[in-house]
Task: structure prediction
Amino acid sequence: MKVPIARAFRGASTPLLWYYAIAVVVPLLNGAAARDRLFFEHTAFVLLVPVVLVAVVGLLRRIRAGPR
Amino acid sequence: MSGSRAAALTVIVLAMWGLKRHYASAGVEDLRWILWPTGKLVALATGSPFEFERGAGYMSRPHLFLIEKSCAGLNFMIAALGMTGFALSRDGGRGVRTAWTVGASVALSYAGAVLVNTVRILVAIWLCSANLASGWWTAARIHRLEGIAVYFAGLMVLDVVARRFAEAGRPRGCGAPS
Result:
């Protein structure tokens, strides 16, 4: 169960890194946290949605591969 | 790191910074270079025109949908530019190869931003008409969730495309034992 999910996260690490850098780190450095009261909710979405997507892709791969 | 890779990455990082600066100060009129093709593709897919409204963006009256500044996909393009730039410059090279790396990264990130943003807007129009909002899941939150999912999936696809590009452009050694 763990291997396909770990592999999915390894494959997604570059896009994850770039997405987090541009959607979370850059706005934080620009002071968005102090200006925008919705920033924390937005950041929670940005951090969680890709992780859930990658985990679902890993799970689907595991199911498609069948029992070993 | 080779000198040519450093040069390519410097140009790419400067381009990313320039895009971010441009986005911060631009009005919707200044973003027509990315909003216009997106609006055209969405109009083509939906069969209803998106007309430019000064100071607002591209508006579809039948769908009551506005493609405004925050819908431009500029942050996606900046992330895509960095990601493809790093992937394509991995093999180094000189002169023409450095220019190819920068040119291909800009082209891939621009085309990717327009296409992924088109998909995002088409799904958003469909979600609006499906009227899924209820309780905590407001229309704004559903729109945000959908945007993040589509943009991230788009980056995943673009990462694969950039790796294939890098593979295709890699100089091959001959006479390797098989």
Notes: The mean pLDDT of chain A is 90.
